[in-house]
């Protein structure tokens, strides 16, 4: 007798580069196909895709705004009757909360991308301002909430009143194949940051710290965002034009990480920093700031990097990481692969979906 598969839809605004997009596209293609029938629903057009989704069932709505897809997405879900729908971006989850009043047999899950109350201090969302009473408390309507870090799970319970039994702590998986590098012997120390150029990422304080670093260094910044002009102005003011390489986008991030001595992160708040995890996976340690989110779930002081409380401590840790600490790339990598290997994380998602499908 053939077992009925659980129908799961993953919903994303687009498949452009980003942590949520990476994880959702991975899940849609790698869930146990004997148990789950997965479809990836993308609001944007197919040409905006930055991830390989050739092994997924994908439906594109070809819309450039969430409000334009509200009706067609609802009609799609009404017709196909998925058992579970999962969103990973706040404004998508708000829309799902509204749908849940009408699609009673479908169970909606929200995956949190960050600690929203802190992130909003740096990036203010303009998505869906109507129905304030519903969208302010939309998480309470969703069947389950997936949190990427322990701190995020605590925040969901204490600040939003979500019962612990409805919160699932599932870290991001390491979805890239990590080839561990050989030890480097760079005379000019190679530093790197990978991430969008936005206020919460703290690029400006990293540059200020580098102005005090008493060694010969070169810094590679990979990413794009609305802080580009401001960042370039600061680089010019510090006379760092010859010491910094800026790369808007590359498909060879792992190579750049492998060629770097230290990954430096200046974030004030994080979701679950995939680039930090990927850096450690290839054997490149990380110096980061203590920040709300998932950084401390990844970094173990002295094992695969350091977490600093302030700029003075950051500078000390950076000097220690560059000179007084002998890093073994294999040990740095193992600290990550043992904990975040994709099969381990995938199993957690499959167990959660099976549990939700069986619940009333």
From TrEMBL:
SUPFAM superfamilies the UniProt entry points to: UDP-Glycosyltransferase/glycogen phosphorylase
Domain spans labelled Glycosyltransferase subfamily 4-like N-terminal: 18-174
Pfam families hit by this protein: Glyco_transf_4, Glycos_transf_1
Domain Glycosyl transferase family: 179-324
Listed InterPro entries: Glyco_trans_1, Glyco_trans_4-like_N
PANTHER family noted in UniProt: GLYCOSYLTRANSFERASE
Protein name in the entry: Glycosyltransferase
